[in-house]
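Objective 1b. Sequence-to-structure analysis of 3-dehydroquinate dehydratase.
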Amino acid sequence: MKIAIINGPNLNLLGNRETNIYGTQSFETYFETLQAIFKDDELIYFQDNVEGNLVTAIQQFGFNADAIVLNPAAYTHTSVAIGDAVAAVTATVVEVHISNIFARESFRQISHVSAKCAGVISGLGLKGYELAIHYIKSQAVPA
């Protein structure tokens, strides 16, 4: 399977930023772990801090990948455009959040993306990405 992992703003700082919430591992290091676990799949990683670039990536991968694991980060709570992009593509999209957004500030409990996704994994740390990929693979129709 071809699965794109798309991360939003500030996730390029994983391992350095608010380690009490997000942990001490960089996503690039974790991505190597994912590639080792899912060695028979093509995993693509994209991260950007700019909303429009994330919309473009969702559109690009949403029509040429089997699925997207999406962590829109802070844009979850503000971006109608990202939610609309998810609704427009044919790929299955699973939303992932490293922290439990429902146990944080009230504004973080609003999502403009979740209703457009196949599911949401929140609060399980980086492990949420692996679980999202397992779910995606479990839903795949054999060729």
